[in-house]
Design goal:
With 451 residues, this protein is α/β, with parallel strands linked by helices. It has 17 helices and 21 strands. The relative contact order is 0.09.
Length: 451
Amino acid sequence: MQPTKAGILLKDIAQSVPETLTLAGVVTDSRAAAPGCVFVAIKGERVDGHDYAAEALAKGAALVVAGRPIAGIPTEKTVLVEDVLDAMIAMAANYRAQFSPMVLGVTGSVGKTSTKEFCAAVFSAFGQTLKTEGNQNNEIGMPNTLFRLDEHTRYAVVEMGMQHLGEIHKLTMAAAPCGAVITRIDAAHIEHLGSMENIVKAKLEICDGLPPGAPLVLCGDDEWLQNAAVPSHVKPVYAGLGGNNEVRGENVRRAAHGLLFDIVDKQYGEYEAFVPSVARHDVQNALLAYAAATRLGLNALQAAAALAASTAPGSRHRLGRVRGIQVIEDFYNAGPQSMKAALETLAEVETEGRRIAVLGDMKELGALSEDAHKALAPIAQQNGVDLLVTVGPLAALAAQNAAKRGLATAVCESNEEAATLLRKEAKPGDTVLLKASRGMKFEEILQAFGE
């Protein structure tokens, strides 16, 4: 964050601090505290930032934003607020208002981080671009992204995630995007939101921060978005692989290190494009990025060409090789749609030997969980899986159903057991898919398999 007057950063948050006080940054980790910073005391599930406020002051923090008085912290150094996370977002909004980049908001249940990376690659071809790092898309991470803005930033791609209704509303009002993208809708977070309709409603909150006439790019291949009631003040643009999309992809074919495809744009014409990914659904994500850039006024030919410069986030549909065995890493996260897409990718990738799918639990599916895991069995069978290996009690339901269908299966209770089985079963020429929710820590399987 650039040095900012307290009166600007804390507008409508605090009245008692000297407005001319210069603040050097905003931190939520006392270990990162430095002279002149604001320390935001956030109470998490395991750690309460209020307990570390004194440490932050000792390192030179100018102010502490807290939800309650803290013993030993001077009142003149304390900014008391009703909701610390809301205060963090409000500070980010005040800071963002000092700059005028073209901001694009990205949300969705599936593919938002990959789409964010494609968007960042495209915008970077036109000027200095800021993007959300990793999965920092929540009420803490998104403000931290906005705090990285400066006068040199021409474009910013801001990812917005949520678990409950109302969360994206707060984020988009702070980011004030010029346009937005909604990728695909899946049952992720249905445990918190209760229905698919509520998930769509929560994602559409991104429109609340858009100005009249702003482009809202939607995945036109998603049935929930096809039927969504888009707010009248934005201009919907549908992109995807289906024939009815305003921006569509055709003639997808494999090339060295990725996929080639043709962009057919009803407004700007046709262009050949390339993405460095083995996953067909990344063509869909790339089309969303191209559509967002062009509808915000950027050159279509340059936008299409820039897709090739994108880099896949860690552990997402990355094709590698271990012990002469082709491995598809796709274990950053998982839901029913992304599981299906990963199994389809396994089917599409050329292999000399067997196709082995190692699947782990999908989290946060609530009442849908049992049926969603059982439904993986026919999908695996349809996509030519020769051996289905599962890890976790929920994924075991898929193996049980697959075994009834005659598919070879193995049920593992731990990542170590799965790695041991792979070392025994997988042979050079085989292709192995690793896919699970992030909490399953499938990177442990990859590491142990390669040892």
